[in-house]
Specification:
Layout (H helix, E strand, L loop, with lengths): L17 H15 L8 H15 L4 H10 L5 H9 L11 H17 L4 E5 L6 H16 L7 E7 L2 H9 L1 E2 L1 H5 L4 H7 E4 L2 E4 L1 H4 L2 E5 L12 E6 L8 H14 E9 L12 E6 L2 E6 L1
The chain binds S-adenosylmethionine (SAM).
Length: 285
Amino acid sequence: MSRGPRGALPRRLPEIRPEEYRAFRDYLERSCGILLGEHKGYLVVSRLRPLLEEEGLTSVGALVERARREPGSRLRQRIVDAMTTHETQWFRDRYPYEALRQTILPELAERRPARVRIWSAACSSGQEPYSIAMVVEEFRQARPGALPPVEILATDVSPTILAQAEAGFYDGPALRRGLSPQRLQRFFRLEGGRMRVREELRRMVRFEQLNLLEPFARLGTFQVIFCRNVLIYFSNARKRHILDRLAQALEGDGYLILGGTESTTPHSDRFVAVRAGGGLLFRRR
Ligand SMILES: C[S@@+](CC[C@H](N)C(=O)[O-])C[C@H]1O[C@@H](n2cnc3c(N)ncnc32)[C@H](O)[C@@H]1O
């Protein structure tokens, strides 16, 4: 176990008192929307322990106090980073990518807007936007010239995970989960002994830090938004608010693609569920 410069923590996890837990829960929810359940004290201290050590603090209460006292510091970001789950994989759940291939890209090829804009709104380590880019490349190869230029915007609240995503290096299980050997061969190359997403795909994706709790109208509008496996962590009020703003960020009757267990109902009536690619997508009304 590494010790921070001033750290003199005991080896066992620090205790978290109920009022400290409540203060932390409230702080986290306001910072990034993640709503912890009632009895997650153990999870909180185990995830925050390295940060407490680095900061030379002995309690979660002291961490929250410092973060509140220094709102402009990187502390808030580091707390959010420690508490977010970045679980993801290539072509997660398959149906969103089948829907892109079978339904959405053909519709866009037919309609031919000046450019196609797709947003991956909680992109984690990049598997989601790069999977989208792979489907676009495959579609282009199958139907040369059918699509206008395609721009994929990938955002996440965590700058640490975004930096990893943008670099595009993947190893071990993260490289293989959900990726076929054919796609691995076609879309990656060996660089410095590690596998990296090829430049032609990386050029298609632009990465930017964005907290979904904050305004995002400046991003403009999109024909397709992937917002997968993130609203699940938020309160119903936050879900409602974000879904309304996502509806505004969609062009016309554009598509919203949520996680496999997520739905716009009962939180928003601005979408209609449609079946495509073997799963449910949501179109703006
Ligand atoms: C479980 S991952 C989902 C990744 C990917 N969309 C997928 O379905 O595989 C959730 C991601 O949401 C991000 N996240 C959490 N709160 C967020 C917020 N308020 N704004 C933007 N991203 C957030 C986390 O950093 C994490 O990378």
